Amino acid sequence: MLILIDNKSCLPIYDQIYSAIKEQILSGELKEGEALPSIRNLAKDLRISVVTTKRAYDELEREGFIYTISAKGSFVAQKNLELIREENLKKIEEHFSKAHSLAKCCGVSDDELIEMLRIIIAE
Question: Residue 114 and residue 96: Cα distance in Å, rounded?
Fold first, then answer.
């Protein structure tokens, strides 16, 4: 499992860890039932506080991406297809919003933008 921490990022470190693990789960890079590094080992590897790593794991568990078994560790939870769909829909909406903002800056009308999307879909 690869997690890169960007100290120049405006995102808190726990959020960077959370996002990296979540993305690897959603992409299938981390498989259902796969063990995650212990909180202590990950903190040591990343040279960060155990509290920071625990916060990321707690957030992942609260959202259903991982589960923890006492004295055994944390594992990737069974994929909830509806949750994955919602996450992907959220990403699509973000991309559409960025495209719409860029189009407005360039003077592209909504009709032209919709036509561009139709052309992309048809390809």
Answer: 11
Each residue's pLDDT tens digit, 42-75: 999 999 999 999 999 999 999 889 999 999 999 9
Which tokens go with 8?
A: 């120049």
pTM: 0.70
Within 8 A by CB and 6+ apart from 44, the residues are: none
Q: Cα dihedral angle (14, 97, 28, 43), rounded to 10 degrees? A: -10
